[in-house]
From TrEMBL:
This is Aromatic ring-hydroxylating dioxygenase subunit alpha. GO terms for molecular function: dioxygenase activity. It is an enzyme of class 1 (oxidoreductase). Signal peptide: none annotated. InterPro entries: Cholesterol_7-desaturase, Rieske_2Fe-2S, Rieske_2Fe-2S_sf. Keywords: 2Fe-2S, Dioxygenase, Iron, Iron-sulfur, Metal-binding, Oxidoreductase. Its EC number is 1.14.13.-. It comes from Peiella sedimenti.
Length: 366
């Protein structure tokens, strides 16, 4: 691979900055955000989605459009009738839908009218709650949606308990730009210039080993760089591993002796130009009790700075320029694009995914 290469102009739905992967799990949010009996309207991949939880506690998701007159089902309410169980009642004409999307009742029908409500369906989406997180399966064919053929990810480390810290921000960017912006190793000294992190004057050469992981890759476990000052607050001799997984999950697992920190960044594409970023921290390290305000301010500052840079970058992207990717600083961005292409090809050919990432050491200055 050459030291520098320019992307071709996007010409299909899987080109960089366009389209989305399908038949895959997308991070939707925390399970605690949806209370029993509650319903919320979300947007995922440009589709309106009702995300709810039955009073019995089961999460579900369906297309947030009533097939009768297109009113948002999320504007209705959860009701319960004999022989129907819990249903979503449309606010317009009272049509009721079970959590699996099947119509349970049409109140305007008379006893002698033969319309069978159960023949009417709203598209439902597989929704799984795992380790306190919600993942939604976005199938390729809306008319004949596939069932998930693999489970959502499971994260090692201190998950399952209540998060110690949660931060969110909406990026005005396509998922691709949000992903490569967050994994970019060279922007830190320029975008994130804080006394407690690093400055452009502290740059030096770095060398990190990488290897393939399930549907992604990881920066192998290592000691943080000497100019990454924020790790010092953890004390001891921290070691960290940073993993990326399609379509938009990045997590860092830090160990300090017997203590752990898991920092998960989940990217949820709302549509072609908006991506919601959710950062969640779990830890059994006492620093989160002692320095939580400092850590919260730092996480918020990082997201704001990245978001501000995305807004600035959009000034150039609106002219649809070709982009230049260089080795080794942009190799992770290249891997991301290779992973996307392989995912699309493997699904089209109905074969197993073959991870294109091979073990490699990358070097850059930051």
């Amino acid at each position: 691979m050459s030291a520098a290469e320019s992307t071709a102009k996007p010409s299909d739905s899987q080109a960089f900055g366009r389209g989305f992967l399908r038949d895959i799990w997308y991070f939707l949010g925390l399970g605690s955000e949806i209370a029993p009996g509650a319903m919320e309207r979300r947007e995922v991949l440009g589709e309106p989605v009702l995300v709810g939880r039955t009073r019995a506690g089961q999460p579900y998701a369906m297309r947030d459009i009533c097939p009768h007159r297109a009113a948002p089902l999320s504007a209705g309410r959860m009701v319960e009738h004999p022989r129907e169980g819990e249903t979503v009642e449309c606010c317009y004409h009272g049509w009721r839908f079970r959590p699996d999307g099947v119509c349970a009742a049409i109140p305007s029908l008379t006893a002698d009218q033969e319309t069978d409500p159960s023949r009417i369906r709203v598209r439902s989406y597989p929704l799984v709650e795992s380790q306190g997180l919600l993942f939604i399966w976005m199938a390729a064919d809306a008319r004949n949606p596939s069932e998930p053929d693999h489970p959502p990810p499971v994260f090692d480390g201190v998950v399952g308990g209540a998060p110690k810290l949660i931060e969110r921000r909406l990026f005005q960017a396509h998922l691709d730009h949000a992903v490569v912006g967050l994994m970019d190793p060279a922007h830190g000294p320029y975008v994130h210039q804080q006394w407690w992190w690093r400055t452009s004057a502290s740059q030096h050469e770095k060398s990190k080993a990488f290897g393939p992981r399930e549907y992604g890759f990881a920066m192998e476990r290592h000691r943080p760089s000497s100019n990454s000052r924020a790790y010092r607050i953890l004390g001891g001799a921290p070691e960290t591993e940073i993993t990326f997984r399609l379509p938009g999950l990045r997590w860092e697992h830090i160990r300090v002796g017997q203590r752990q920190v898991l920092a998960l960044t989940g990217l949820t594409p709302l549509n072609d130009s908006q991506t919601r970023i959710t950062q969640i921290f779990w830890s059994d390290h006492p620093v989160f009790a002692l320095a939580k305000p400092f850590l919260k301010a730092g996480s918020r500052a990082f997201l704001k700075q990245d978001g501000d840079m995305v807004d600035l970058q959009n000034e150039g992207l609106k002219y649809d320029p070709s982009l230049i990717w260089i080795d080794d600083a942009d190799t992770q961005a290249k891997w991301y694009q290779q992973l996307k292409r392989e995912w699309t090809k493997a699904r089209a050919e109905a074969r197993a995914f073959n991870n294109p990432v091979k073990p490699r050491t990358l070097r850059w200055r930051s």
